[in-house]
Give the backbone structure.
Amino acid sequence: MLTNPRGILVFPTLSTLDGPPGNPADMEANARFTASIEIIGSMTVGGTFYGFTTATAALCAHTLVQTRAHRSRRRLAFLLAYVGVLWALGTVLIGGTSRVWLETYVINAASALEYPYVRAPAEGAAALVVNTAYWVILMLTDGAMIWRFKVVWSGSRFYRYLMVSPVLLYLVIIIPGFCVYVLSDSRSAWGPPDNVNLRLISAVTLSSFCLNVYATALIAGRLFVYRRRFRANWGTYHPAPR
């Protein structure tokens, strides 16, 4: 983290990392180049994945409606609402992210591009909305992984032991995530690299990753074992693996 003479927290650009300051015009050009890369990168990647999630949400809703005969009205309404909420949160996330970069590099361009540094994204309601939406998305998606794990493993005698790790990881995601994304200031997830919240953000991200890997691996393993037993006992009684 660096500070300019006015005391604003700033990120170093390519010019400050490559060596001592040079021509002010070159440093300003580097600052603008860094800002453009951040804007284009975040919008391109975010927009692409938003398209994927929109298509996936539409496919899920279509499948649920087509197979509604297998579910009660209450269950169908719950699943459709779950898909709709996730899609709406994704929309809020990409829209809020766009607003954050707009406020930083367009509305407040005079201060955001003060060479030789690029300031951290501007504080405001948009950053708080993005942080909160991201936390709720984590809570819902990782909660769905635990529910899927429970459905597949609930009949096993090892279920109570295997369920401990996902629950602990989920608590790490929810509690510190709520503190850093919702309770903290609106720039907690956008601040400088040495921000004290960086450790909490890293813990939340790693916990979510480990939870998904753990649950997916054990679900796939149990289904694979069941498939092997089913094929080995074709036409006979084949109890679920325990």
Summary: The longest helix spans residues 24-66.
